[in-house]
Amino acid sequence: MNVIETRKLTKSYGKQEALHGVDLTVRQGEVYGFIGPNGAGKSTTIRILLGMLRKSGGDVKLLGGDPWQDAVALHKRLAYVPGDVNLWSNLTGGEVIDFLGRLHGKINPARRKELLDRFQLDPKKKCRDYSKGNRQKVALISAFLSDAELLILDEPTSGLDPLMELTFQECIFEAKKQGKTVFISSHILAEVEALCDRVGIIRQGKIVESGTLEELRHLTRTTVTVELAKPVNLDQLQGVHDISQKEGKWRFSVDANAMETVMNALAPMGIKSLTAEPPTLEELFMRHYGDKFEGKELK
Amino acid sequence: MKQNHFAGTGKLLKLYLRRDRIILPIWILLALMLINGQVSFTKAMPDWQMFINELSASPITSAILGPIVPLSIEGAILWRGLLQAIITVMFGASLTVIRHTRTEEASGRNELILGRPVGRYANLSAALILSCGGSLLAGLLTAVFLMSNGFAGSGSLLAGLTLAASGCFFAGIGGLCSQIFEHSGSARGCVFGVYMLTMVAMVLNNIGGGYTGWAWFAPEAWFRITLPFGGNHAWKLLIFIVLSALPMVLSYMLLVRRDMGAGLIVRKEGSADAPPRFNSPMALAWRQQKGSILVWAIGMAWLGGIMGMGTPNVSEAISSSFAHMDTEWASAIVKLGNQEGFMAILIYMLGLMGGLSVFAITVVQRLRREEKEHYAEMVLSRPVSCSNWMVSYLAVAFAGSALILLVLGLVSGLGWSVASGEFSHFLRVLGMSLSKIPPVWTIIGIAALLYGWIPRIGSILNWLILGIFIFIEMLWEVGIVGWSAMQWTYFAYAHYSIPIHELSIVPLIVLTVIAAALTWLGVIGFKRRSIG
């Protein structure tokens, strides 16, 4: 079953169109990474999923229901961490955690204590005295404390230190083990790479790529560094790009579907050493965003 | 070395001018408009001479607004117009200082600035210069405006400078409150508290005849010390300057004694757990509002109590000419008697027109703030419906306003009863206060409707509606519009001019129903729109 499903989802503010048809499919039990730079439409999409914003067009289904109509019933089954956590300045972190937890139902005090310890949060401080990272911890603890089946996290770690980032990742893995579905929006690609089963890349209000990391990698080029005994003319090979030569080593990138041809062509040239690096998520991402202005020119 | 502390003041001042390019002109022009209103009022009146004579002979107006000094058209303008303008400038100046000092510090934006070569004092200095400059500008414009209306140059200038001095004093108060409190909200509350104290001093001065030493404690009544167009005691401005410098100097002294971001009031650790009942949007709304409800209740009890105790001092003698005045207002006062009239007007101003209207609007606007600051999102992403969230806040607003009115009625009634030894007053005063509940609820309903459907401009519209209603009230008082116009406002149905035992209950019930209907419509609007 798909936990989140949107088809041609659009949202416009007056004349300005924030989403131009977002197609998302998040399956049950998976950790889904929703990546894109600031202003691409990540938070808008999430806020539609939460029933805070009204969609302008298209279909959206969350846990089998309509996020606008069935907000209260659906919110019983999910926990949300906003990107910019703002908390009531006169309440302590502990009070906020208790309050938000009780809106869902009962709180497990043992689990509460465990999470406070793991995230090293002092629950006695007033929220206005917390740093951004600590406010984020309050929201995260509150989310992990709930027994929601879906976690929606909007850039949840942008204020966390590396130690806490690790704790966060542990919690996500635990959630996954329990069969929960996790939807994370992020622009920290290392985090997405470490956590997510599948990834969707959003650009200018549209999903431009989605699939498992393996599938995405397959769509893009592998970087090859090779040292050859014989001289070679790489330019003539199909599917080879960005050729450079340094200290006798060739470095170039190869389209996934051209790999076989290229390897066959290289083999007789006396390969002394060869490394092939799969594209990082960053490269995948930059492929869509590196040519920043292309999209605008097309319009 | 010393002057390094002021480094960057000029640059900051430029920044503040840029940030205040709308707000600064607003509070300066508002002051001018208030004077202008009174000028055109008085001039439009064919028999202003008689009107002034009558008003100044009336013990009840004297107690509230003070005697008209000098007894001339200029005096009549100072009496209400300058008073209101001064209060505006006092708030404009003090809130401007807080806006650029404590608010900036609390938000952390100040760190961006203090990380640069900017002196310790620069921030406070620039804010004070801006506020005092604004006050002075308002004063000079007032002087020019009065002169252009053909009033004497010396008196006009003195009136303007007195206004400027009051503004400067409150700029200093704003600076001081900013040092003491860690949060801008508390600092603003502190300014308001100081203002309440000055109001008491002003009324005591008025009841005492207008020339008592109390006037020194009430900057809004400083024109009763300098006496423009009358005694023209310009040299007393020098004392005002010294008085204004005091809170400023104190602010600088406190500034160097405290840490960046800290106040003088030590921050407390809170509880690690929430009490078990803290589990619903209603509990949250109560938790967020109870402080301000308490402050309002205490403020009302304080003002109502003191005024109630003072009521027996209001002379019951009605000037002979007063009874001849042909405005509905005058005849209503004659009917009520001066003491009862004083109390009725007091309860009306505190409990409806000036006080609780403001409370009601600000409480409902708290919803907007919760939404804008993304607090609402935290709650609404949980299994909480939009209507539950909004109704919870409104319920606290309804209950809170009723509670404040109950306190106001109890304490004012007790004050009057105890001071006069006549306990029959008590229930009447309580009735006056409680009769304001339906109209106050109607304001909450209007505010809820605006918030539900047009949150962005809703808050401005809200104040505008209140302003128009108050304007209608003023027009009615001087007899320019009739009672039928008043009936378009919710003020009319619990109006002070109607003796409490003659007040009809049916319109109050209708108002309550209207309030409920408006609230319901507001919730429908809120459910239909996007959040944030």
UniProtKB/TrEMBL annotation, chain A:
Residues 4-229 form the ABC transporter domain. Pfam families: ABC_tran (PF00005), DrrA1-3_C (PF13732). It comes from the Bacteria. InterPro entries: AAA+_ATPase (IPR003593), ABC_transporter-like_ATP-bd (IPR003439), ABC_transporter-like_CS (IPR017871), ABC_transporter_ATP-binding (IPR050763), DrrA1/2-like_C (IPR025302), P-loop_NTPase (IPR027417). CDD domains: ABC_DR_subfamily_A (cd03230). One of its GO terms (molecular function) is ATP binding. Keywords: ATP-binding, Nucleotide-binding, Transport. Belongs to the ABC transporter superfamily. This is ABC transporter-like.
TrEMBL record, chain B:
The keyword Ubl conjugation does not apply. Keywords: Membrane, Transmembrane, Transmembrane helix. The keyword Cytoplasm does not apply. It comes from the Bacteria. The chain crosses the membrane at residues 21-41, 77-100, 121-146, 158-181, 193-217, 237-255, 293-311, 342-364, 391-417, 437-454, 461-485, 505-526. This is Uncharacterized. It comes from Syntrophomonas zehnderi OL-4. The lineage of its organism: Bacteria, Bacillati, Bacillota, Clostridia, Eubacteriales.
